[in-house]
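Sequence only, no structure available. Ideas?
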Amino acid sequence: KTVDKLIEDTEKPGISFTTKFDKAFSATPEISGKVTDNQGVSSVEYSIDGGANYLPVDEISNPRAKITNFQFSILNLLDGNYKLRVRATDLTGNTETSSEKILVFDRLAPRVGGVIFTLGSQVTEPDENGLITTIAGLQEKVTLSAVGGPTEIKIITNFKCQISNVKCEEGDGVQGESFDMSKNPDTGLWSGNVSFPEAGIYKLTAKSVDGAGNETESDLSEVKV
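Reply:
I predicted one. Tokens follow.
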């Protein structure tokens, strides 16, 4: 009779979190919560990539009980935003997945690294003065690396002066257009296209924002159009 009742069970486990996700973590995240089920809890797993991959939690109190607490620590995280889900299975195989929580891990302010400019498949090399040269109206692809877990990077093109000017002062720059960058999930590199409406010297700045709201601006290069 007990076996028959278990086989007929269709009620899924309930999952709740004790840990709060309203603030960024700066140390190894320790996640805890509770699972309930009308028959008993068999296993609890977690995912930090939105459910693509799961690992068993570190600890379950009262295995096979109707109420069990779980706890796990997530080691070796890089700065960034992680899509956290917990999946629980009961004694008869019913499975439930929690709603998604955004876990923000933040130790460093976002910073961009090396940058490459390309026109089609051709890399645009800087001249002896460090200037990248391009043509007005053409789209130039910018690819760069970044650390600090940015969730958003924009390239801002600041017009400095006409090419005919003998002297181009740093203070001549005025805010130009803003171009969104996108992250390649396989390589971790960010890329996007920029263009320049008219001839002149432009200063390129990268504006980065991470999941904790930290914002930085970095000078990338100057472009002669």
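The first strand starts at residue 14 and ends at 17.
Hope that gets you unstuck.
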